[in-house]
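Aim 2 progress update. The chain analyzed this quarter is reproduced below.
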Amino acid sequence: MSQQENPGNREQQKTVSLVLGSGGARGLAHIGVIEELEARGYVIQAISGSSMGALVGGIHALGKLDVYREWVKGLSQRDVISLLDWSFSGGGIIRGNKLIRKLKHLVGESDIEELPISYTAVAVDIDRGKEVWMSDGSLFDAIRASIAIPAVFAPHSYRGRTLVDGGLLNPVPVAPTLRTLTDLTIVVDVNGPASEATSENNNDDDGESSLMRRMIKYVESLDITGSTAAEGLALSEVLMRSLETMQAALTRHHLAVFRPDMVISVPKNACMVHEFYRAGPIIELGRALAREQLEAMSRTKTDASGQPS
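Predicted structure tokens:
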């Protein structure tokens, strides 16, 4: 949507520090949020992200979000599977190199310090148990480290450290954006409370739907860990639910400490973490939720002042 098409352009231009949370395919909602902010005239001056938030935020900072959006919207389940380089050693069932090569081919590469927007990807040093802020060096090394979901993607070795998903300790990394003075700090939390309105659309039983489910079941049938999942739950589901529960608790803590100006909350049942082939609806959900929050903020300011903001 162009700026000319959106009446929100009449709003006073404001600068934004944008915090993009972790959450697998739900992180595609970040695209809709970013596009809605820019369509309304907001200027994003700083981005901090964990996991999928680091990926989308980095590609936006590179100036290629439109290219990535059109590519990901065209993905089928078979396309998603074709991007996975399976591995049964090295700390994860997916190496991740094939995906990163594809993204570099799609949008190009850059060092973070050369980006026009202040950018930080958050990862975790698994040996030291510490959060790592990556704000210089290779953009895609930072992204690869931040998306390394434990037991799913192999950890990323970088500068002598073994790095995994930033969401493990900080799913909504507000602190790195505090280095940039802006009018608003906006957090996009993609592990928000479940919503009945989205659950009826969270369904992968149509078209090629069973393909991804069969692949996941096949990987689980190999019994890589030698452990048994809880009765009635697949191993992958136990892992993902555990991570989501932990990240939800960490998110509540970080939001209580940093108190951002706005939180855009994407329901955790908007889609499953692997459903990247549902990009179109997820992006539009992010856009709609951003629009709702921005309009609510505008109404509140109008009511308080008696005049449009």
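The first strand starts at residue 15 and ends at 20. Residues 202 and 271 are 5 Å apart (CA to CA). These observations will guide the mutagenesis experiments scheduled for the next reporting period.
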